């Protein structure tokens, strides 16, 4: 007897699905280890933390690096998460030609309020 397995997607397949309009513009999805994961909505504490980081990170980073928020980072062979913030090496094309790769990433910040007890 064979057991059904979930389909795992490559980065190319995932990008093709996006190009074909398979996902709605409002879908909050990420490719993690070949699985298309629907991300949960962000709550008020999460959004508040992001706003605070947007105030402080540009001051700390300045022109020494590139700051991006909730945008893809390509992790071959089959992941493309969208961390809350990534501090990247500066690149002349500002990543127009391709999403950042692991060698471009200096720091990743992911905010998680669901795993913390709010006091």
Quickly list its features.
tt1808, chain A; 119 residues; three-stranded antiparallel β-sheet; alpha+beta; single chain; 17% strand; 2 helices
Distance between the termini: 52 Å
List the uncertain runs: none
- Mean residue pLDDT: 91
Category by helix and strand content:
alpha+beta
Q: Specify the helix fraction band.
A: 10-25%
**How many structural domains can be distinguished in the coordinates?**
1
Strand count, sense and closure of the main sheet? 3 strands, antiparallel
Percent range for β-strand residues: 15-25%
- Output the CATH topology: tt1808, chain A
- List the strand order in the largest sheet: 3-4-5
The shape, in one word, is globular
Q: Any idea what the CATH superfamily is called?
A: tt1808, chain A
Description:
The protein has 119 residues and is α+β, with helices and mostly antiparallel strands. The protein has one domain (11-109): tt1808, chain A, CATH 3.90.1570.10. It contains two helices and five strands; from the N terminus they run αββαβββ. Strands 3-4-5 form a three-stranded antiparallel beta sheet, covered by helices on one side. The protein has a two-stranded antiparallel ribbon with strand order 1-2. The longest helix is centred in the middle third of the chain and has 18 residues, at 44-61. It is globular, with a radius of gyration of 16 Å. The mean pLDDT is 91.
């Amino acid at each position: 007897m064979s057991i059904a397995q979930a389909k795992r997607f490559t980065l190319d397949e995932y990008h093709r699905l996006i190009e074909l309009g398979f996902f709605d513009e409002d879908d909050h999805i990420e490719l993690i280890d070949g699985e298309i994961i629907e991300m949960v909505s962000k709550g008020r504490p999460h959004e508040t933390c992001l706003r605070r980081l947007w105030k402080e990170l540009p001051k700390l980073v300045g022109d020494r690096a590139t700051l991006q928020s909730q945008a893809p980072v390509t992790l071959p062979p089959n992941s493309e998460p969208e961390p809350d913030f990534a501090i990247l090496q500066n690149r002349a094309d500002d990543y127009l030609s391709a999403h950042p790769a692991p060698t471009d990433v200096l720091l990743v910040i992911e905010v998680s309020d669901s795993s913390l007890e709010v006091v």
